[in-house]
Amino acid sequence: MHPDRAIPGLADSKTLTARQRDALYARITDEAAAWTVVSVSVDDIDLINIHQASFLAMRKALDALTPEPDAVLVDGFAIPHLPWRQQAITKGDQHCAVIAAASIIAKVTRDRLMYELHEADPRYGFDRHKGYGTAEHVRALQHYGRSPHHRRSFMPKALMADPQHVLPLGPTGEG
Asked: How many domains does the chain have?
């Protein structure tokens, strides 16, 4: 964030409405000293696990920033093997404007991706559950199997009750 340009209204993205997040996203992307979004593939997430994939994505995002950060503030866990000073802040998106801004950028980007996925294949209801393991999402997985966008390692608790249950492959033959 630019040190001389405070953005009023920054808060934990989960406490904001979609309209508030969209408005703040526009302000953040216009006024931030630097910002970027990166992703990690479904295959990579399955290979290294979701926690390590989160660290990988954060490192990739930090490497892509221009100008380079002076220090890194992280929500929750410190990121291993960073060349910059860093501080992990518990509930950082509630206590730190930079972390709140990052959570807003991430949530708006993810929600927009979910709408695109829904447009391409509405059977899974990504526009409504945004990829969370809701009852609707579980029912779609049970009925249609995994899409190419689902992690093979994704197993909602509702499906874990039957340890022998294996989700069928989606219509493309990919899981």
From this structure: 2
Whether 112 and 126 map to the same domain: the answer is: no
DSSP 87: E
Token reading at 171: 């219509």
DSSP assignment of 89-119 = ETTHHHH-HHHHHHHHHHHHHHHHHHHHHHH
The answer to whether 56 and 48 are in contact (CB under 8 A) is yes
Nearest to 71 by CA among 80, 57, 82: 82
Position 63 pLDDT exceeds 60: yes
Q: Structural domain of residue 131, as residue ranges? A: 121-175
User: Whats the size of the chain, residue-wise?
Assistant: 175
Q: What is the pLDDT of residues 116-134, one digit of tens each?
A: 999 999 999 999 999 888 8
Cα 149 to chain centroid distance, Å, stands at 14
d(CA 92, CA 90): 5
